Amino acid sequence: MSTHAIADTSALLGRSLRHITRSMDTIITTTVMPIAFLLLFVYIFGGAIATGSGTNYATYLLPGILLITVASGVAYTAFRLFQDLQGGIFERFQSMPIARSSVLWAHVLTSMVANLASLLIVTIVAFVMGFRPTAGPLAWLAIAGILALFTLTLTWIAVIPGLTAKTVDGASAFSYPLIFLPFISSAFVPTATMPGPVRWFAEHQPVTSIVNSLRSLMTGRGVGSDLWVALAWLVGALLVAYVAAMLIYRRRLS
């Protein structure tokens, strides 16, 4: 990305962030559901769930809740993109001497910042509820890196419906399967407790390897092969989503 494009992206990023600060309900809304899941599973179901992990249930549960937080948050990226397209903002910016890619990157970076705020809020609530990690500084850097990569990947996936949807509901509906995936993974209960076909799916879908990696890092345990599987899923999905989103974007503005 050229210096000119970086400057344009920074200016448009400031515009998007100002919109968010004027409408904090976006961040609040994306944190309400994950916090509700925390309360429900820790205080209602947690006493009946045996994880066999040697950690309290809030610590076991948090990695999956963080992924749900991001999946909820990126729906707003698709929503904001759809609104800008329908409002003619993209065409207006196209007529100005700014880099074409900067408009899209501003939305992506806004998603990263907004989701970071949501993740911090949910983590603070988890601490209040008994989340007690034993991770060291390097492990926390790895956790932050995985969550950032996960957010970036889901954001570029969100860009696709944001550019192609015909209605507002269609733009954000893509996030529902993403929110549902952690429920069929190791996020809430060990996969060993699931019946055969469900267990096979849970153990071979990307959320399980991501959750296992985050949980191992938070509790100071070895991540094993889960980390490499998680990174392979995330990097592969990111590359596919980025290429597809950029092709669609160029066609929309051509």
UniProtKB/TrEMBL annotation:
Descriptive protein name: Transport permease protein
Domain (ABC transmembrane type-2): residue spans on this chain: 25-252
Keywords of this entry: Antibiotic resistance, Cell membrane, Membrane, Transmembrane, Transmembrane helix, Transport
Topology of this chain in the membrane: Multi-pass membrane protein
GO cellular component, one term: ATP-binding cassette (ABC) transporter complex
Pfam name, any one: ABC2_membrane
Claim: Protein transport is one of the keywords in the record: no
A GO term, aspect molecular function: ABC-type transporter activity
Similarity comment: Belongs to the ABC-2 integral membrane protein family.
Keyword Iron set for record: no
Subcellular localization(s) per the UniProt record: Cell membrane; Membrane
Organism domain of life: Bacteria
Single biological process term from Gene Ontology: response to antibiotic
InterPro entries in the record: ABC2_TM (IPR013525), ABC2_TM_bact-type (IPR047817), ABC_2_transport (IPR000412), Nod_factor_ABC_transporter (IPR051784)
Membrane-spanning ranges: 27-51, 57-82, 103-131, 137-159, 171-189, 227-249
Record lineage: Bacteria, Bacillati, Actinomycetota, Actinomycetes, Propionibacteriales
